[in-house]
């Protein structure tokens, strides 16, 4: 008879997380636990200058005094921070990092991930950095970018090669003691990407970082620092995957963006960390602090497609410090099975004539919980500030939840703040309508979800948008209600 | 083409269709008329395969094949089209995009590759001209913010795109002013052929002035109580449904 919800569920169960493989290469992993010695050891391992070691230690001391935040609308067993290894590196990383010399096992892994490094080399629109566990293993296009004066390298290398830049900007947007996870990251971050676009330069290609947690029992703490100097432009992408494991893995990243006068940064994320199995076992805890600061006439645009992770706690934010600066946040967050997401943004308006736009699309299926949490703050000197927020939730089935927590603080009478919110459910009638036009139920859901998410998908760079669309389909397969 | 024998169907254990018999041959236009709640729309939903209805007896054969085991999309692939009384909205999905998904799903069922974008756009252009549809309309989200007339015209546009063997028009005339009705009827007439059949479901006779049926059936309380030619529709118009009702045994 007809294809029922049960059939769909069965089909879903047989569909596993596509990126759930583990690659067996030799790795250099620290013993579990965290103390000052471990922090020093990480710093030493990376051959860091003393100022960096001290910076980490300051962060660690702050972290020790802090407690884990509990205000988010998520419930999970807190990680035991002494049971995690804070450093793991594939042993055969070539210090010179030309892709030709990379460990064949690593290359095989990239292949499985669908990243053909050869292609990467040929394609000239995406320069890529790949971070496996704790270290950056490949940075392509260094030379091409170098000709424009663009610096794109692992943050470890940047600390050594461009200490003046790192020292000047690191921690200026997300200070060491900003929050519990940011402090932890500041103490133990192992790698990540650094990018500097010089004055007036439009970066000719998309810059991209690919993150992968491979080793068991390790946390990943990457740090991204992106500085767009006056009048420059850059579009940056990041993607993430992890093997399927029964235990929860911790990912606590910090991303800092600095857009100087008249600069523009477009930052896109497709986050597909392992979400746990259908019973809610395993999966990545994704506790991330992302924030950018805009100077005069600058613009920062965050676009995120969040489909993975067991628990997500993430609020990419903009500090609109300069007059006429613009902040944007476009988000699609999908939760299925037992996933929980508490995500949104903060738009802090400090300068005059600052503008922000928030478009958030939450899609919940299975027994998942999906929360939007956002703050729009207009400070007293931010004359004529404007914000528009739109939060839409789409529910599938009767066991999931969608929540919206908008906070609006206005201290200037000239502000214009608009907030719109909708909640809808994929209806049987919509599905039947599509069926009647020959479109099967799976495709119908994909069509409806893509339509629902369109305003955000349109903001992704082309190649990414196609991938994101596929990811939405995979994440929601078999979740009709 | 369509042969319905003693069809009985329930919704949530409530009996709606109580033994329908109907045969439609290629090229014929049939109209089913009847008062509200007589089961007309249920009949169209059951033919299209809507899940909430349960067939409790009888059979529906389409080109000799039993439909009851087929999913709604499989019935669509075989050439059954339903113009909905209340077309649903799908925000963010343009009419063009929706048609692309629909056409390609039909083609896939026939083992064909996706229609090349160029051909698809040409077909969309031709059919929208046929139905006097403004091209801007095609990039709007499906049915979102459409007026009643636009929704119905969009249904007929989709019908033109899919060129079904059997088109069921469920109350296509409801909510249309006379001008919109003429455009819709004109569209349907242009699509009539010796191979395609139409089943009109309507409350009022006025649609039948524009789409002239070969046969008219009157449905009351889940049964076809009277069948005839188009004259029957005029008679109904004059005498009302009460005229046919006394056939029910008291």
Automatic annotation (TrEMBL), chain A:
Top-rank taxon of the source lineage equals: Bacteria
Q: Which GO terms describe its biological process?
A: iron-sulfur cluster assembly
Domain spans labelled SUF system FeS cluster assembly SufBD core: 211-452
Q: Name one Pfam family in it.
A: SufBD_N
InterPro entries for the chain: Fe-S_cluster_assembly_SufBD (IPR055346), SUF_FeS_clus_asmbl_SufB (IPR010231), SUF_FeS_clus_asmbl_SufBD_core (IPR000825), SUF_FeS_clus_asmbl_SufBD_sf (IPR037284), SufBD_N (IPR045595)
Identify the residues that the record assigns to the SUF system FeS cluster assembly SufBD N-terminal domain, covering every copy: 46-203
The record's comment on protein family reads: Belongs to the iron-sulfur cluster assembly SufBD family.
User: Which protein are we looking at?
Assistant: Iron-regulated ABC transporter membrane component SufB
From TrEMBL, chain B:
Occurrences of domain ABC transporter (ranges): 2-246
Concerning PROSITE patterns, the annotation shows: ABC_TRANSPORTER_2 (PS50893)
Pfam name, any one: ABC_tran
What keywords are assigned to this protein? ATP-binding, Nucleotide-binding
Q: Does the keyword Transit peptide apply?
A: no
Coiled-coil segments on the chain, per record: none
The family database entries (InterPro entries) matched by this protein are listed as:
AAA+_ATPase, ABC_transporter-like_ATP-bd, FeS-cluster_ATPase_SufC, P-loop_NTPase
**In Gene Ontology terms, what is one molecular function of this protein?**
ATP binding
Q: Which PANTHER family match?
A: ABC TRANSPORTER I FAMILY MEMBER 6, CHLOROPLASTIC
Family, according to the entry, reads as follows: Belongs to the ABC transporter superfamily. Ycf16 family.
Protein's UniProt name:
Fe-S cluster assembly ATP-binding protein
Q: Which species is this record about?
A: Gillisia mitskevichiae
């Amino acid at each position: 008879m007809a294809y029922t919800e049960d059939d769909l569920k069965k089909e879903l169960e047989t569909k596993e997380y596509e990126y759930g493989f583990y690659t067996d290469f030799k790795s250099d992993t620290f013993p579990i636990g965290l103390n000052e010695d471990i922090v020093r050891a990480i710093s030493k391992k990376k051959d860091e200058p003393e100022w960096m070691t001290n910076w980490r230690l300051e962060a660690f001391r702050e972290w020790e005094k802090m407690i884990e935040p509990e205000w988010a609308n998520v419930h999970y067993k807190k990680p035991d921070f002494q049971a995690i290894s804070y450093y793991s590196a594939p042993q055969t990383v070539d210090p010179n990092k030309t892709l030709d010399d990379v460990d064949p096992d690593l290359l095989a892994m990239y292949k499985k991930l669908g990243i053909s490094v050869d292609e990467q080399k040929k394609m000239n629109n995406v320069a890529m950095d790949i971070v496996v566990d704790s270290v950056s293993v490949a940075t392509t296009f260094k030379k091409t970018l170098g000709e424009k004066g663009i610096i794109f390298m692992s943050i470890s290398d940047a600390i050594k090669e461009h200490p003046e830049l790192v020292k000047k900007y690191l921690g200026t947007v997300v200070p060491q003691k900003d929050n519990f996870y940011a402090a932890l990251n500041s103490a133990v971050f192992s790698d990540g990407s650094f990018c500097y676009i010089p004055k007036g330069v439009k970066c000719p290609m998309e810059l991209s970082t690919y993150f992968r947690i491979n080793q068991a029992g390790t946390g990943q703490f990457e740090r991204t620092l992106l500085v767009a100097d006056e009048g420059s432009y850059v579009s940056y992408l990041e993607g993430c995957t992890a093997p399927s494991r029964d235990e929860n893995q911790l990912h606590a990243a910090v991303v800092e963006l600095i857009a100087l006068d008249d600069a523009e940064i477009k930052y896109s994320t497709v986050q597909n960390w392992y979400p746990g199995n259908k019973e809610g076992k395993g999966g990545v805890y994704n506790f991330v602090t992302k924030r950018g600061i805009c100077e005069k006439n600058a613009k920062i645009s965050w676009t995120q497609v969040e489909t993975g992770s067991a628990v997500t706690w993430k609020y990419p934010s903009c500090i609109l410090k300069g007059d006429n600066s613009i902040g944007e946040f476009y988000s699609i967050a999908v939760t299925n099975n037992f996933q929980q997401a508490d995500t949104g943004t903060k738009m802090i308006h400090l300068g005059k004539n600052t503008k922000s736009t928030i478009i958030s699309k939450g899609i919940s299926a299975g027994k998942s919980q999906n929360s939007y949490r956002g703050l729009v703050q207009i400070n007293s000197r931010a004359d004529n500030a404007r914000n528009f927020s739109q939060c839409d939730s789409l529910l599938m089935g009767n066991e999931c939840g969608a929540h919206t927590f908008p906070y609006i603080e206005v201290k200037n009478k000239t502000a214009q703040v608009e907030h719109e919110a909708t909640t809808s459910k994929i209806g049987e009638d919509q599905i039947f309508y599509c069926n009647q036009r020959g479109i099967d139920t799976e495709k119908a859901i994909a069509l409806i979800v893509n339509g629902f998410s369109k305003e955000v998908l349109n903001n992704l760079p082309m190649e990414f948008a196609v991938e994101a669309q596929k990811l939405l389909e995979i994440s929601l397969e078999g979740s009709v209600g | 083409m369509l042969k319905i024998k003693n069809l009985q169907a329930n919704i949530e254990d409530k009996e709606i269709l109580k033994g329908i018999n109907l045969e439609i041959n290629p090229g014929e236009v049939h109209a089913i008329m009847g008062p509200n709640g007589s089961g007309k729309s249920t009949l169209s939903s059951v033919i299209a395969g809507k899940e909430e209805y349960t067939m409790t007896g009888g059979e529906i054969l389409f080109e000799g094949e039993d439909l009851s085991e087929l999913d709604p999309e499989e019935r669509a692939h075989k050439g059954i089209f339903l113009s909905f009384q209340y077309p649903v909205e799908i925000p963010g999905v343009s009419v063009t995009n929706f048609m692309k998904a629909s056409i390609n799903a039909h083609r896939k069922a026939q083992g064909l590759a996706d229609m090349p974008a160029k051909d698809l756009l040409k077909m969309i252009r031709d059919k929208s001209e046929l139905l006097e549809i403004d091209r801007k309309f095609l990039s709007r989200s499906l049915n979102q913010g459409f007026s009643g007339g636009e929704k119905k015209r969009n249904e007929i546009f989709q019908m033109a795109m899919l060129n079904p063997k059997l088109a069921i028009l469920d109350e296509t005339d409801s909510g249309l002013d006379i001008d919109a009705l003429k455009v819709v009827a004109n569209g349907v007439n242009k699509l009539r052929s010796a191979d395609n059949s139409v089943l009109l479901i309507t409350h009022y006779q006025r649609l039948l002035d524009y789409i002239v049926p070969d046969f008219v059936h009157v449905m009351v309380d889940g049964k076809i109580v009277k069948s005839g030619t188009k004259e029957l529709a005029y008679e109904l118009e004059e005498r009302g449904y009460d005229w046919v009702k006394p056939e029910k045994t008291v």
